[in-house]
Amino acid sequence: MPVPRPANAVPASRWATRPAAATARTREDGTPRADPGVYLLTREASPQFATPITVRVIRERTDLVTYHGWTWVEVYQLDARGQATDRRELYVRPDGMRPTQAPSAERRAPVRRNARTSR
Fold it and tell me: How would you label 50-63 residue by residue, b for 16+ Cβ within 10 Å and e otherwise?
């Protein structure tokens, strides 16, 4: 008989404080985790990424049942400057997610134009 849970029960996060032994990049069943951070998603992560995108992972959805080796993640999609442009939920293979640096948000100095004043 299942243990009754309150209606507002929240699933435990895999990123909550973990014991030292659980800091490896794998779950108890041996599949990799999608830790928070910045990743490059290519076809290795999912066939939908024929054009690679850079994302910042917010969290892994542990409340959804998936196929072995796949997971749902909540992410912010980043533009070329590293700014978040869209919040998405993606179905990916964590072992295909490549950690990367966030694109640098290099700011250029404003172009100064000589304003000619007539006297």
Answer: eeebbbbbbebbee
CB-neighbour burial class of residue 71 (10 A; exposed 0-12, middle 13-18, buried 19+): buried
With respect to residue 40, please indicate whether it lies within any of the assigned structural domains: yes
Tokens 């939920």 -> residue = 89
Q: What is the pLDDT along the chain (119 residues), one digit of tens a residue?
A: 666 665 555 555 544 444 444 445 666 666 667 778 899 999 999 999 999 999 999 999 888 888 888 999 999 999 999 999 999 999 999 999 999 988 775 556 666 677 666 55
Is residue 61 assigned to a domain? yes
